[in-house]
Specification:
The chain is an alpha+beta fold and 339 residues long. The protein has helices at 29-37, 41-51, 58-66, 113-116, 194-202, 255-262; strands at 69-75, 81-87, 93-97, 100-104, 122-129, 134-145, 152-163, 171-173, 185-189, 205-213, 220-229, 236-237, 243-247, 265-271, 278-288, 302-315, 322-324.
Amino acid sequence: MTDESRTGQSMTRDGPPAGPAAEGIGFHLGERAVQDLYGLGERMASIGAQVFMTALPDPFRLFFMDLEFLVVASVDGQGLPWASLLAGPPGFIASPDPRVLSILGAVPAGDPLAANLQPGAALGLLGIDLATRRRIRVNGRVLALDRDGAPRIDLLVDQCFGNCPRYIRPRQAVPGRGGMDPAPAVVSQAVPDPRAREMIAQADTIFVASAADTRVEGRAAGADASHRGGPAGFVAVDEAGVITVPDYAGNRYFNTLGNMVLRPAAGLLVPDFATGDLLTITGDVEIVWQGPELARHPGAERLWRLRPRRVVHLAGAWRARLRETGGRVVGLGPDGRPG
């Protein structure tokens, strides 16, 4: 997501060829290639310069300080993105400086995030309040870990921006519950088992981790965390564990798709709001730009498939319980379908 992530490879099969990177702040090579595919390059170039910020304005800082959970995108030693969830009481995220966010509390044992944390590592943060449908994304790098003898992640902000409320299903936390279990029961496997497939097939909310690519030492230049929502069952999973995610109309930034163009891999986080189970999956991605398969996913403008390499099930890791408030889901029609 950051300007440092401007080098990369050609696009996935059937996508547009990636040309030389243009100079300027905002969208990187992969994002611009997808925007150009849809004839939006010139328009989005001017928008990007207005939207992206390199420091947190005060309303953003206050928003993060009020949150009770946070989605974190990281990248492992193989270059594979992972999506994780961290939680705590309001105030577990602090902002001592407009360029810094501090996340207090330990990462649950068994979460791949723990192994991916080191000074200088790229992280993507998604702050999201399901009750108000507000969300803010931050991309940056680990500045320091475990300060003053307490578990803590300090992130130096490279870029931040807000997102629209589309496809966010309003939910409210049950009072008196929250935070993380530091040592949940963990099952790690190569493909989703029946319980994991059930969680995926019933989900109406998932979170996605992606990363832009660079040829410098093969590391990720920028990690990004994003939200995907739709009617329950909008994500499909087959018996082999291959996951298909429809891509609906959005803000046309194409942050996630642009990252996938440069690094065809992604991480998924599937939360069970009733049990606190978290399913985090990483694997290889193929983007389906067009074709008859789209007809099986009403409202989808594109699809992408994730072929899992590793699936980690953290049973009851999130102590919170969230229930639907019955509010309208922006972007879904009266029939519950995108439109």
